[in-house]
Amino acid sequence: MARLHLFDLDGTLLHGTSAPVEISRQLGLEAETQALDEAVLAGLITPPQYATRVRELWTDLTEAHVTAAFESAPWLARIREVWAEIRERGDYCAVVSLSPSFFVERLTGWGAHAAYGSRFPAVPFTEPVDPSGVLSAAAKVLIADRLCAEFGIRRADCVAYGDSSSDRELFGVVPVSVAVNADRHLSDVSTHSYRGKDLWEAYELVRHAR
Asked: Which domains does the chain have, with CATH numbers?
């Protein structure tokens, strides 16, 4: 039976940061976005409120800024190699993130079979964020189930990789999970734990796990 590997983005594939922070860094607004990251992680604001506020910060955002943020971000090493190996084994890999889809979807170019993020208006922005398109922790489970149906895979054959409370619900419904540079929210629900900057090393922990 094929397996589906589900990867979080912020704090997982990106080491110690988030896509919005890296995007805001291009505009000189990383401190403001880091504060919003902390607020949403602490439950002080909801994901739709976060998306609305960060979109307000990005009034001058262009595609060039997004490209620069993507290319200069602190990615874990060997992401492409892991996804190539997963494909060679006949398995599937996908990224599911609360970050903007216009950033997340670029990872299909690195070998992900699918990449889902919160729906934002096209850059440069002329429209507000639609709250109904903003993903949540619960949405990660729904998307995982949708991908399972698409690829003909069971939840029992899924592996999840994440770092924070937004991954907790997904970790709770799959049999194998890797807490990657994770905070305390995942320490009691993950089956494996990894600290470092190389995705291959995290993948090796569950490469043969069933």
From this structure: 4-15+74-204 (3.40.50.1000)
Which residues are bridge partners to 180 per DSSP?
A: 194
What does the pLDDT read at residue 204?
A: 97
Contact present, 28 and 22 (Cβ < 8 Å): no
Q: Could you tell me which of 129, 19, 138 has the C-alpha nearest to residue 72?
A: 19
Burial of 27 (0-12, 13-18, 19+ CB in 10 A): middle
Token duo for residue 70: 């993507």
Q: Are 177 and 171 in contact (CB under 8 A)?
A: yes
The series of mean pLDDT values per 10 residues for the chain, 210 residues long, is: 96 96 97 94 92 96 98 98 97 97 98 97 94 94 98 97 94 97 86 97 90
- Residue whose tokens read 């216009």: 102
Q: Which amino acid is at 178?
A: V
In sequence order, which residues have a C-beta less than 8 Å from that of residue 25 and are 6 or more positions away? 69
Q: What is the CA radius of gyration of the chain?
A: 16
User: Nearest CA to 159 among 170, 151, 147, 168?
Assistant: 170
pLDDT (0 to 100) of residue 210: 65
Q: How many CA atoms lie less than 13 Å away from 91 in the CB half-sphere?
A: 19
